[in-house]
Amino acid sequence: MIRKSLNDAAQRVRVDGKRRHKSFVDFVVVDVKAGNGGNGAVAFTKTPTGLGPPTLHTIPKKIRAANGAGGSGDGRVGKRGSDTIIQIPRGTVVKELWRSPPPVYLDRQISSDEETLTELRRDRAWTHYPGMEEANATHPLFLDADKELKRIENLQYRRYDPALEQEKALELDVTDDAHSHAQHLIVKGGEGGVGNPAFVTHVHRSPKFARRGLHAEHVKLSLELKLLADVGLVGLPNAGKSSILSALTNSKTKVANYAFTTLKPEIGVVDDGNGEELSTTPPFTILDNPGLIAEAAMNKGLGHTFLRSVERALVLVYVLDLSSDSHLHDLDTLVHELNEYKAGLAKAGTVVVANKADLLGGSEEKNVEARERLQNLTAHVNSLISNHTLHPSTTVIPLSAKHAANVSILTQTLGDRVSRSKQQQQQHEQQEIE
Ligand SMILES: Nc1nc2c(ncn2[C@@H]2O[C@H](COP(=O)(O)OP(=O)(O)OP(=O)(O)O)[C@@H](O)[C@H]2O)c(=O)[nH]1
Ligand SMILES: [Mg+2]
């Protein structure tokens, strides 16, 4: 009996583990098609916040807007296709991988002869009353309507053809809370067909032709979820980033772990008062990253994978190993890599942590060396500030993550920076609304 319940529990843990693993998806490719001939469009909107950790696992791989319905006699217009709206989580970046060519583009791949193109277009787009096709082909009313269609298709061609004024590939970054209700049109529905009554004029009371619905857009998109944390730690491997995360989030604080098979980023919540009144700074999230190495911006090692998340942090922290002889050079490497990845990104770092300071203690001689190193580091940081590489508010904080020394100063500083940054963001958004 006991064994059975233990087995059941073990089974539950395994199933839960799988489920949890499955429910976190940070990259998907989706196929999106608008409705044919009746305007059904597809739009993306942001998932309301507060619905648990973001994941893309609920996004369908195939998204289809409803097709419109055909019109009928007595001048009745066909039913409009309904729009499809998909919610995607905050932090999602949408990129277009492929877009379907408009039919006119495919026609021109077959032939460049105007007569053939006209024939292809007319076969594709027009329906004629039985036996009227030949007569229509010379009828001024039909010729005018066909000319207008040709004009529309030429525009579609220009927008699609890379050699001409091709439309920019779709790219969407759903980060902003301010635009939480905004909808982003992904694919437009094909314009509905046009029945013959639409072509009636005073002279021609009964046109003998109708236009079919126009081509609906079809795209393949990648959806990628970037991790969003208030603070991002950057440093060379072994500098002590994970130790800092655990020192900041361990004893007095809650830690939220999200384990992934590919990236294994860790997000912790720093909450120095456990959410109670003692707390001097509001809680904030901190992201531990893999080590950054020279040429990471060239996508070496884990290169871009985590720099994408680093890009999102409100405050960046440079973590240096002060006991290493190369710590000044290490800072230059980090700054260089961040700027290589995205110009100006290094300026988002406003705190330089001189970690492992404990290794430079214990004797008077070592204390002197520690002070010297700190002075030199501060001077180096100041020179990077004066040549506009680092933010003017950048400060150096000596720390021992291992022995939890100076941790409260770091927590306080980061809390202040995050609050300030959030305030600035709010002001900015307020200004945008006004
Ligand atoms: N003496 C001392 N050792 C430290 C300190 N912080 C970290 N270490 C040690 O340095 C080593 C690397 O620490 P981690 O926190 O794993 O470093 P990391 O930057 O996360 O390393 P990667 O994940 O490889 O990039 C470990 O052995 C830590 O115990 C410190 O303040 N003092
Ligand atoms: Mg680590």
What does this structure look like?
The chain is α/β, with parallel strands linked by helices and about 425 residues long. It has 10 helices and 16 strands. The termini are far apart. The protein folds into 2 domains: about 20-225, GTP1/OBG domain (Spo0b-associated Gtp-binding Protein, Chain: A, Distorted Sandwich), CATH 2.70.210.12; about 230-434, 3-Layer(aba) Sandwich (Rossmann fold), CATH 3.40.50.300. Helix 8 links the parallel strand 14 and strand 15 (about 350-355). Residues about 1-5, about 10-25 and about 250-265 have low confidence and may be disordered. The chain is about 35% helix and about 20% strand. The strands form 4 sheets. A 6-stranded mixed β-sheet has the order 12-13-11-14-15-16, sandwiched between helices. The radius of gyration is 30 Å and the shape is elongated. The protein binds guanosine-5'-triphosphate (GTP) and magnesium ion. Guanosine-5'-triphosphate (GTP) binds near residues 237, 239, 242 and 355.
